[in-house]
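Minutes, project check-in
Item: structure for the 240-residue chain
Input as provided by the requester:
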Amino acid sequence: MTTMFISDLHLDKDRPKVIKYFIDLLGNLESDIESLYILGDFVEYWVGDDDPGDGLREVFSSIKKKSNDVPVYFMQGNRDFMISEKFCNHHGMKFLKDPTVIELHGKKILLMHGDTLCIDDIEYQKFRAMVRSASWQNEMLKKSLEERINLAKMLRAKSLSETDTKDEVIMDVNNDEVINQLKKHDVDMIIHGHTHRPNIHKIISGDKEYKRIVLGDWYDKSFVLKISDSKIIIDKNNLS
């Protein structure tokens, strides 16, 4: 049996081809797929359980339908951290905390969105701590839906602007933090997204070898990781 992992689809009504591709993928999963893990930034932004999800209703209805046969797990990312456990339950998804440890084929795997590994980006980590706090989210939810959507769009634009000016190294993971998390959770492997730098890294620390698998984003290509008892497969397909 095979487990599938995806992240950073950034689904948005302005990218209908990507939405259709995901819905088609979900509707035609191979028979050996036993579970699907979505590790954050599934949608471009989300402002609360009352988000209208413009262009995304078929996405969530497709997930709910598929979850009758295949468990679908969801972890929040930095774009969709307002998707709640209640929302997940309603749409057939099992809510995962970041980080979460699972076991597959005798290996312990740490699942993360990946942004907490980027500790050199100090300003981002401060922002993350603020918006993940209960007090900030409670105040956010007191605003009207229109205000929240406008704020989300403003923050998205700000994020894109800052990304253009930040050093590439700062926005990537800190290698010492990667090793810290591997040892803290006593795992063999980390799987994460966020950085949009897909790769399979081998890490040697002491007398042990670890893996860090970075999932790719879904802008130019789809990126699907499949793990079975015998191999690791990465499927990529053009989205243009």
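Outcome recorded: The first strand starts at residue 2 and ends at 6.
No further action items on this chain.
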